[in-house]
């Protein structure tokens, strides 16, 4: 039987037939002209394929499934491709995939972004069904600068598409906690939004999380981290297309302020399942449950497992049907849904905070969180290899857009010129006080003395020559940059320098996402260090001149 006749028989049959019964056991399959991923996602190609002959239509569908079964991309990438193709074909209803169809398709920005996977599909189709595809399409699409618009969004200052400003980011985090504290947002929505801020994973990765992926003990494991940690399933690995969670995992530490919230979320999930099934959940079963779920999702999963898979729900709590869909998680992250898990909180979405630069609500989504997090880590000087891991990419070139930033290039130039300009920029310009002048200050102006804490003692390092209000609270460190500072020549400024170097080393330690300190706004003590070095150098010169060049190493 020819391909066309086989499908024609299926389409006209009242019963789905053996072909679809077999296909229903697979995750991705066609049912008529509708493409399904289980029961969760679907694309209706009925209008899109209406221009093709019956035989070409079914040949296209066969080759589409064959291409997916090659498992070269993640499921997310395949669905992105399906959406692009469906939209472009629906607009033109071509009788074959020719240049006319492609020219109209390329008018759409969404089709142009990331069109490489569409090109891969067409290259797969062309030798297997030349009558379906004009070879000129491959040449044109190969020369198309795919991803152009995506990079522009990353680098632009568009307040609705580009990265958040520091003020916007801080306001978003504060608002998330504020809504939770006031009972306006549930545990699940709060945790998802905080995860998006601090880990900037894709919604599909949050969707696939299980309670067993949260490790709250301090035991060593394959991650090598002796601290609470979370293991995120990958999203763009090749293995992610074959089946649920069939991919590598990306692990990150959990900060202390997340622990109680996560424990509360796990408790609520456990109670929700036990209440629904009227069944006591064991620790083993608890680890199988999704970290993010809802009562409606459980109802859907039970129906799907019974009707489609012919499985007993309680025996398959690890099934993906129990997990909130990625698109729903995206709406929660974007503040368009509240995903209530308790009766006291409604599912009405709370409005996001107002942006200081637009005076309207901040447009929040997972993509903007991703751009923001990576940009700010890149500005810390984090290596591309580590950022590639953070992004879940294999190709470091994927990060190019995050580094093509004029402000970052200016910082690189600044760093290159530092050695040349440091003596001019960082040289101390205040007045040095010798032993006699120091005694005079102690006697007449004791309130002006600036001290450095060392152990349980306060050691005087200089005097403030301003004698008026100063907003500096962390004295005496910033004072070394002030021309009103009068350092004592015989003070132990080396001790101040050592303290600064230790603090800077701590700041420059290997970055752990989700740590309790604000990684994206690190403390940079380089200017303070240079100024203290300048004071030490000038004090040595002063002592040498007073002593006639005697050794002054131990002043």
| Strands in their spatial order, largest beta sheet | 1-2-3
Average of per-residue pLDDT values = 77
Annotation, overall tally of beta strands:
9
Number of helices: 23
Overall 3D shape:
elongated
N/C terminus separation? 98 Å
**Uncertain segments of ≥5 residues (pLDDT<50)?**
1-25, 146-150, 422-426, 510-521, 551-555
Strand content: 5-15%
- Gyration radius, in Å: 31 Å
Structure description:
By secondary structure, this protein is mainly α. Helices cover 47% and strands 7% of the residues. It contains 23 helices and nine strands. The strands form three sheets. A three-stranded antiparallel beta sheet has the order 1-2-3, covered by helices on one side. It has a three-stranded antiparallel beta sheet with strand order 4-5-6. A three-stranded antiparallel beta sheet has the order 7-8-9. Strand 1 and strand 2 form a beta hairpin. Helix 1 crosses helix 3 (54-69). The N and C termini lie far apart (98 Å). The relative contact order is 0.07. Residues 1-25, 146-150, 422-426, 510-521 and 551-555 have low confidence and may be disordered.
Key attributes of the depicted protein:
555 residues; mainly alpha; 3-stranded antiparallel β-sheet; 23 helices; 47% helix; disordered C terminus
Layout: helices, strands, pairs:
Elements lengths: L2 H10 L4 H7 L4 E4 L2 E4 L3 E4 L9 H16 L5 H18 L6 H7 L3 H4 L3 H10 L10 H7 L5 H8 L10 H16 L5 H13 L3 H6 L5 E2 L13 E5 L15 E5 L2 H22 L5 H4 L8 H13 L18 H8 L32 H14 L4 H8 L8 H4 L2 H20 L9 H10 L4 E6 L2 E8 L20 E3 L5 H15 L18 H21 L9
Antiparallel strand pairs: 1-2, 2-3, 4-5, 5-6, 7-8, 8-9
Helix pairs in contact: 1-3, 4-5, 10-11, 11-17, 17-18, 22-23
